[in-house]
Every structure is written in structure tokens, then in C-alpha cells.
Specification:
Elements (H helix, E strand, L loop, with lengths): L9 E6 L7 H18 L11 E4 L2 H10 L14 H12 L7 H13 L6 H11 L10 E8 L4 E6 H6 L7 H8 L9 E6 L5 E8 L1 H4 L3 H14 L4 H7 L9 E6 L12 H4 L4 H5 L6 H24 L6 E4 L16 H16 L3 E3 L6 E3 L6 H22 L1
Parallel strand pairs: 1-2, 1-7, 2-3, 7-8
Antiparallel strand pairs: 3-4, 3-6, 5-6, 9-10
Helix pairs in contact: 1-3, 1-14, 1-15, 2-7, 3-14, 5-7, 9-10
Amino acid sequence: MGSTSEKKVFTVLSIDGGGIRGIIPGTILAFLESKLQELDGPDVRIADYFDVISGTSTGGLVTTMLAAPNKHNRPMFAAKDINDFYLQHTPNIFPQSGDSLFGSIASWMESLTGPKYDGKYLHSLLNSLLGDLTLSQTLTTIVVPAFDIKLVQPCIFSTTEGKENSLKNARLADICISTSAAPTYLPAHSFTTTDDNGNSRSFDLIDGAVAANNPSMLAISHIIRETAKKNNNKLEEEEEEKVGMDGTKMLVLSLGTGEAKHEEKYNASIASKWGLINWIFDNGTTPIIDIFANASSDVVDFLVSTIFQSQHHKKNYLRIQDDTLVGNESSVDIATTENLQRLVDIGTKLLEKPVSRVNLETGKYEIVEGEGTNAEALLNFAKLLSKERKSRLMSQ
């Protein structure tokens, strides 16, 4: 959509991490893109409407699919094709060992000696799909977090930095492999970038979810930083820095990948007896991963909701999340045909659920009276996006 410094309203799409549960936001995005096409024609794509698309882990994969260019310099994937990608490839990314006792024991043993999956299929798939495309080539600005285990700090990849710094202009394939390298599930990823002067930088990365499973705040902070950086006059800079905190100047769509039903997955009486192994492996799940990923997503939602609700512009922030998942549907890797289809159904039904917003007192999602369904809210959001895009096209 162009340089962030030229905009009066900034548009943000954020997609959580969550493994195979990326199908849920995939379903939401297919619906949104179809509504945008009804408004503006069949050739428009999600990337035409958002200044920044941010995604973590599986959300980083979806982000790249939406923003990476094909040979015609248009998005590589239409939103309607995302779920087909998941249905086709995740059974090979996460091959199932079966429900037998032997399969469970084998999975447990593998978790003690190495990652549950070797990642070879995912690495081959992403390298084949994205080739040597780099971060600087995306069709709109993307922000994708990973975590550098050598430096023990987050590593945030953005299109802007990729254009400004050759050492951060990594291949999109390497970024996608890194942001999805969930500890215990997939191996860490290392690669090196070089610039024209022969300088190099090495990266040793794991899943961005350990830092920001919900990357919406990263996207907002990116806009604040870039608008401030492009102003030399201190007074103007102070005014521009307000952009990211002003609900009238932001349209933010944040898509969750679903989470387990509250208070039904683990309980304190059992967890109080867990040792190291149980926190890593409990009846086929990895509690420590589930917990930090959900905690990260909810805290960020709480913070962003506070910004918009406190300024009475809560409708400019739309968070769509399902916190009622149970059993296999709350897993990140049970890629059976039955479970994958179940996630498609969950995403479809989520569209018809009432709009919910986090209660700043309880942290739970509550139905918002008078705002209709998520589908209706997305249609209204699509109209706002369409209006903003048309305004920009007219001013060119």
C-alpha cells in the first residue's frame, strides 16, 4: 500500500501462530477477500489493502503467502487458496504416528532426543515455493518475528529493514522456516546473509511465538517507529508518534488461531506434580508451548484493546478469536484429515458467531451486544478498507 509516512489512516493485519490451526484465520481471510472483491473487482487481493501484514509462526507463513510476489508481481496466493495449502501439505509436515500405545511411546521418546518432526518436508516445500525471493520484494510491508537463540533476543524481520539493510534482507524461505521452528516440534534454523561489501551476518533462530505469538503490537510499533523516523522536525515527529496510539488513525484486524477452552485443558493439582518431562510432554501435548503461546497472544490483545477502548474507537480494532477449542482441535500438529476438516468447520462457524471483545477486567472474551456477527463486522471492515484504498488511488 506504500510508504507509511504518506497515510492518514494506517491499516494493519495481524495473524497469530498456531501450527495447523492457521486454517482458522485462513478461513476468515478467504471470506474477507471475497467481500473486498465484491466491492472492488475480482482481481484485488488482501495485500492491496494493508500497509503492514504481521504474522508469527504459521501466521508468518500465511503473511508471506499473501505478500510474496509471483511472476506477474501479484500475490503468490489468493486468500481462498490458503486452506487448500494447509490441507495438502500439513499431513506431510506433521506426519502422524498413529493413536496406538506404541505410537505414543515413540513420540515421547523422540521428544527426549530431538524435535518431534525433522522439518525436511517443510524446508523443501518453502525453498521450492519461495526460491530466492527476499524480504525486500514483498508487495506490502510485512513484519515477522523469530527468536535468536545465540543472542537470546527477538529478531524481527520487516520489509522496511530488508530494503534498508542488506544484512537483514533474508530470503523469505529462511524467515518462514525460522518463525515456524517451534521448540520440541521442529528444528532450529540457521542461515547467513551477506552484503555487497562482503560483510556477513549469521542467524540462529527458533519460532517467533516465544516472543510474540500475537504480533499485532509489533506491527503497530513498526508504524510508530517508521513515521517518526521520516520526520526531521521535532514538533512534527512528536505529532507523528501519536499515530500508533490514536484509534482514529488505525484500522487493525487481528486474527487468532484459536485456543483451548478456558480452564479445561490443564489444572493446577496435576501441574503441581509435573517435572521437566511433563511440562514438555503430557499425553501427546506440550504444555509449556501451549501456555506461553496463548499467554503471549492474550496479553497483546489486552494491550491493543486497552488502546482502542480507552480512546472510544474500539470498532477500529477487530480481534477474531475462538477460545472454545477442545481435544485434538486445540493441538498445533495433529494433522489428520478429520482434525484438519474440523478446523475448517470451526473457522466457518466462527464467522457466524457474535463479535466478542476481551473484558479488560477478566481477560475473557465476551459477546458485544449490537455489533452483529464476525461476518458482519468483517463486511464493515472491508468497506472501510475499500474506502481508504479508493481515497489513496484518487489522490495519486
